[in-house]
Specification:
Length: 1226
Amino acid sequence: MEGLLRSLQSNNNAERDAAEKQFVQALASDVRSTMNNLLQLVLVSPDAAICQFGAVLFRGQLTRKKTGEKWWKTLSNDEKENLRSVLLGRLQSAPTPKTKRQVSQIVAQVARMSFDQNGNDHWPTLLGNLAQMCSSSDEGGATAHVAVITIEELMKTVPAKVEVGTTPFELRDLLTKLMTSPPNDSIQVRIAAVSAGACLLTFLDEDDASEFHAIVPAALNVVTAVGNNEELLLKWCESVIEMIQNQPRLVHKSNVAEPLVKTMLELGAAAANNGSEDVQKQSLEVCVQIAMELPLAIKANQELIKSLLESCIRLTLSVDEDEDEDDFAKVEGAATEDTLYDHGFRALYLLIENIGEDLTVPLLFPMIHQLLAASGDWRRERAGISALNSLAYTSGKLLYENLQSVLERLVPFVNNPNTKMRVRHVALDTLSTLLFVYSDASTLYDEDEDSDETGFDSSGNNERPNVQSLFGPMLLECITKTLEPPQSKSPAQWAFASKGALAVAYFCSGSEDGKGAELLSNFTQPILERLIGLIKASSALQQQQTAQHGFALVDGAVDVADVTGSCVQAVGAVAKALGEDFTPFYDTFMPLVKELYSHQEQAVAESKQHMANHGAGKVSTERSTWNEKQSHLLGLIMECLSLMGMAVGASKFMPDAGALMEFVLRYMDSEWAKGDTDRNAQVASLATNICVCMGDSVDEAVLGKIMPRFIEWANKSHYHEVDEAELEKLQEEDEDEDEDPDHSKQYVMTEEGVLCINTFLFKDRLRVTELIHTLVADLGLKLMPWAGDIAKLFIELLNGGVTSPDFQLYAVYGIGCLVTAVGKWLNQQGTEVNAARREFSQTLFQKSLESCVNNLVDGFLEAANEDEQRQEEQAMGKEMDEDEDQSSLLLTATANQITEILRAGFESGGLTETNIDRMCNDSYSRERYMPIFNVPQDQLENTIATLVSLMRSSCDRPRGKPWWKDSHNHEVMDSLAESVGLLVKAHGEAALEPFAKHVLPIADRLLDAPLSKDPASGVTPSLKAVGLFFLDDVIEHGGPRAAELVNKAMPHLLRHADAANNGLRQASLFGLGVCVQHGGTYVDPYMEQIVQALVKAIEAQGARTGFGASATDNAISALLKCIIFKNATSITAKFLTYPPCTSDALESRIVHYRLYRALATQNATFMPHADRIRQILIEACSNDTGLSTKTGAFDEETAIVSNETRAWVHTNLGGPAPGQAPVPPS
């Protein structure tokens, strides 16, 4: 056996391979003898190397069922008892510490197997024996040391051994004693006890942990006895980090966090003097973990925060002066090494994020200024810029408010030829980060934030311009200069140009919504010209490198795929930002990118063929990496092609789109079934974008080939239940490093058993689900032949299975879009809708609504269960995660889509907000436009009650401390309130009783509570508006009996008609108009006050600017209702000085429609003012709001004039024709 082990360790591959086969055969033919012989070497061999290797091999076989348990069953009880005894002896006599560690692991495995099937422990004395060994006072405490190590191995391997009875408490006392007074004062024993103590704490739940707080201070005190022993210091830091992560509450209650941070800062400073990089990193990591889990321990001490920031800066300064300037990995600050610089950068970011920008930024700004003032010292320059980058990642308000001074310091570093390349890289990285995180600055401020003492935004406008709008010319001038093709083959210089192209893409991400041409301005031409130059230069370099190195990425070579990929991303982003303004550049870029695509497709095909010929396992890492990058580049090129097409529109894109779609269809016919999921995903994305671009003109035959494949792909399960045979195989191979080499499998424990998730299939299925959602959202009516299959897919994803918030997010948005599309489709059928289609639409509606409501209920329950834990974390100073994580997004999206589903049901009869003639003439007449599908009458009360209960739950949750932003809470409340309103709209007077029973109590609660910025002492303006909208909806749609509620609503409506908060003011002004139109005689006593309030709101300073203009349009519409429905003719002339309306699209359409009808019917009240009305209507029709530059038609939902009004104005007043571009009024 000893000879066999030596052969297994041989450097001769042939000898080692033969030994491996011999060992496997020996185990298969006689497992008892083979294992016994191996064990004998572990127990008695004097050769330390053989003993250690034998121990490793023996322990590995013990964990395998085929060998370990099979061998165990061959032993008699006496042999097992003898084995336990000799193993304890070998713990003490093993020749080296490493061998002792291996023997301790063998002891733990034998202890595990000593439990029989009934749970009886046949080695009950083990812990007692180890405890006795811990008191041994031999030289250096060696026996006690190995005993403690074995106790820790037992806790990891056999939790049942230490979880019973008083054992945890006995271990607590033993380990605490060993930390404070070990045998012979052995520091090795102390450190081992700290490690074992950290392990013990991981097994405790929160209730039990409180009785173990003595472990923490005892463990922390050990560091004072370690001295400068780097290995022991690192082990101690590792154990302390484990304690903080697993039991933060215990550390908090032990009152050791602040002194621990101080100790770690001292340790880090000493390590810096000693040159110990690992101790510097680990000591700072302890501080970072404290900041993440127990920030309250740091927040109160400004000096401590300052010292932490300085420690991070010190690490970012610790760079070897002799670094090769052109070493690409180091220039990148890449993740290939965990350098001091990388560690300091990461720590700084985490400290700012967890302690908060209010406490860190004022301290950090002076440090950054001092670092950047040291001209010529590249290390200080890079450290200062890296600190700015850390601040940028946190995307805080303080940095946003100081952007000008930050950019003035940062920009000069980017293109200064006298600046070190690595500094220029970090400067450009920071610039890109700023472009990305501040592309939407409005997200920095919540709706009710930065307001006066009543919770109002005194400015009346919460919109913040993004960094692109504020500093566009300065940024674009800087970025454009980075795009020069390098004159050398320096990887660092090419990578810099690549980052410049990405910076273009980041800039464009904040230049959409029709502002792209304006923001890019005079830089469009030079940017695109330089991108062409970079693409051509990188293609030429690619040919040179391929000729020299073949299809492989080797050290020292330029990563051309990365450069080209960044360039095509930039071109696509510019096209998306410019929209139709990209047309002049289309004929230059489309052939260029198509040529790139052709070459890239050939390169990927050749690389795949090479891998197929040689076998994936025999292909070099460089070749494999090259292949992955080329495949990724192909996907970027496909995306760029479709983005350019979508920018210029279907008519311009049509010839190229046809050629690209022919490729897609050929691929689907010949290659799709081969299962190359990455390539399938790329082609699927291209097909989707082409279809979206083509819009209504997309060929149904094309969809007929695409949709079945998409649906089939999306329905492929990405997981399966693990049966007993597979579970046994897993247990046998859990030590096999070659198992699942691509990490495509993930095992999850559920109540039903173990599930195996294929992470690759998960990603692919998620991607195609996203694509189906995109197609439904953009081409809904075109997808009706597959509506049933799509609905089944989305509902199954919502209702269960092993999915994720990502899946459910696409499914919930998709199902809402699908129901809306079905409603529009049926509405187009008119009276021809047959019974089968009615039944299908009703079933789809009910199942979709039920799935979304159930998901929302589950989400609220989950959030409620987490509230208590979140509040405890808040008590320790831990900030709530305010990121828009998927869970909070899913709740918000689900509530929103419930609204959309109910809206689709209500509008399925043809009564929509775009049909202004029907809305105004018939006052939502449910007799003529009954919904084709809707909530059945017998389910109405239950549906309303469920929605209201969720709203009540949302109101009852602790404000300011929820796990998602309060703004998300407001969005959910708004959506649920609108859903209730839609139910009232659809059912009219039949909804009054459930409304009074379930809705009025929460409306009263919101309206009667004091208005407050602090949600804990009242309700915010947003929630007050929700209460008003409840009453607005029921008075408008609840029939004559609902008019009685005017007396309840009017005091609140009048009180908030001049509110500074735009949303609350709009709800009040809209509600006044509703009461005027539908309040009958109940509103008459209030008419004078109503008119005064409306005029005051319209004429208020700033009423027609910013977000406040929408509220003002509601006031104008309400004032017109006073004239029409309450004969307030005396204000007609004054009223006509206010229109046209341009901000609230719906109210604008209503106002202009009513004025056109007044002229068309020669209404006596308005005819004396006919000239002014004509002027208003022509001016309104000359407004291009809602006009598509691609189609030349107006979007009915966003236009401020309805199609009917526009047609009448054109025919009778000479205004622009429907579908024609408007012209300024004469």
